[in-house]
Amino acid sequence: MNVGKVPESVLKRSIIKQIKTKRPEIITGAAVGEDCAAIRLEDGEVYVTSTDPITGTSHEIGALAVHVTANDIASAGAEVIGVMLSVLLPDGTEEEELKSIMKQVEETCHELNIQTIGGHTEVTRVVNQPVITVTGIGKVLRDKLVTTGGARPGDDVVVTKWIGLEGTSIIAREMKDVLLGRFNPSFVDKAADFIKYLSVVPDSAVAVKHNVTAMHDVTEGGIFGALWEVAEASHTGLRIDLRSIPVRQETIEICEVFGINPYQLISSGSMLITSPNGHEIADALKEAGINAAVIGKVTEGNDRILINGEETRYLEPPRADELYRIYEA
Which residues in the chain come in under a pLDDT of 70? Predict the structure, then answer.
């Protein structure tokens, strides 16, 4: 495809035709010539919005883009109803690649009952790989809205699934040839397949049935970054048992190959929850088939402490995600 907006025939054939999931709240959605979407809400409902770019990988970029934004909105206790996409493609991109991206988007939207309601697609020389920015729109009853900054001293800290899932999947796909020199193919394929765990929408659906004070999906900066952000937003301290944080062996071994820290690796698929009833929430999540663990407590003051056996140290502010270091290894 040539530089510029994609032709109308491509727009109809490889984008709009792929959008099959519909929501009753959407009055005006994706169509040729429509620059805006229109959505209705019921009394007492509020909008929740979030936007995210996907820049760290080109593998499964359509699925990742939807999951990351849906996770942000689910962390507010809200239901995602629609997404808008900005898709920037390198000069010379084949139409089939665009169609594949939209197929990934639609499959993920169908899984989560989300409608693609509009956006923009362009071929440009300013990018050298596809870049997708997704803006998600969700709804929630005003009195059910959950924030990152709601944690209170005495709350338990819960983590769902395992940390590092997204980063492990990306590395297993982007660096497959390197890893096959160290591990057998089934190990690498299993790690790459961690993408199937990336949604925290089911995690949120279970957690909000209990007394949740804060929720935050674990993304760039990993679990250490997410812990810091919850404490900072809530003006609290933390006391975290490092050994209680759930992490897959595949993540540990792949991180060792590249000399990176799994606790600072992008971790979509894992949600951080605070609640006075943390063990109750963890049990409910496990009953729903979602791994979960209580990893510590919210405390008074500003000290954010990590305990590793006999060793104690302080949590530091978030820094660049470890994923970007794999290209330097």
Answer: 56-58, 328-329
Question: What is the distance between the alpha carbons of residues 267 and 292, in angstroms, rounded to a whole number?
Answer: 14
SS3 85: strand
Contact 269, 200 (CB under 8 A): yes
Looking at domain 148-327, its CATH superfamily turns out to be: PurM-like C-terminal domain (3.90.650.10)
Contact predicate 10/95, CB 8 Å: yes
| DSSP assignment string, 102-163 | HHHHHHHHHHHT-EEEEEEEEEETT-SS-EEEEEEEEEEEGGG---GGG--TT-EEEEES-B
Joined together, the tokens standing for residue 322 give: 């470890």
Domain ranges of the chain: 4-144, 148-327
What is the model's pTM? 0.89
The DSSP output letter for 244 is: G
Instruction: Report yes or no: 83 and 117 within 8 Å, Cβ to Cβ.
Output: yes
CA 19 centroid distance within chain: 22
pLDDT in tens, 83-126: 999 999 999 999 999 999 999 999 999 999 999 999 999 999 99
The helix (run of H) or strand (run of E) holding residue 53 is: strand 45-54
Task: Compute the C-alpha angle 126/129/130, nearest 5°.
Answer: 95
Q: 273: helix, coil or strand? A: strand
Q: How far apart are CA 133 and CA 118, in angstroms?
A: 12
Cβ atoms of 282 and 292 within 8 Å: the answer is: yes
What is the per-residue pLDDT for 329? 54
* 228-267 pLDDT per residue, tens: 999 999 999 999 999 999 999 999 999 999 999 999 999 9
Q: Does domain 4-144 have CATH number 3.30.1330.10?
A: yes
